[in-house]
Amino acid sequence: EVQLVEFGGGLVQAGGSLRLSCAASGLSFDDYVIGWFRQAPGKEREPVSCIYSLEGSRFYVDSVKGRFAISSDGAKDTVYLQMDDLKPEDTAVYYCAAIPVRGGKCATMSVDYWGQGTQVTVSS
Prior knowledge:
- This protein is mostly beta strands and 124 residues long.
- The protein is 0% helix and 52% strand.
- The protein contains no helices and 11 strands.
- The chain has strands at 3-7, 10-13, 18-25, 32-39, 46-52, 57-60, 68-73, 78-83, 92-100, 113-114, 118-123.
- The strands form 2 sheets. Strands 2, 4, 5, 6, 9, 10 and 11 form a 7-stranded mixed β-sheet that branches.
- The protein is globular.
- The termini are far apart.
């Protein structure tokens, strides 16, 4: 059974930092791209960042480039999202997701598995 469990959400002031963790089980990072998506109230779920462990490449949505960094620890089966210089518009529920490597784009429609989500709230 595949499980993705997120940790690390919370409330932070604008300009602050948070680090999200996604602990994965039941899958291999060789077979799946792990990504972070977010959904703000009244908006569609959108991709934030994905890491392609086999290639060593990363995707970031334009709005977080230079502020967020995704990384993975294969020994711990964990993917992290370091979020710096947070802005109120980053407020959302953040979801960890697993996308099959073959043909897997960092897109909502490509996701096979979702975590339960963790709330990130950035106050102004």
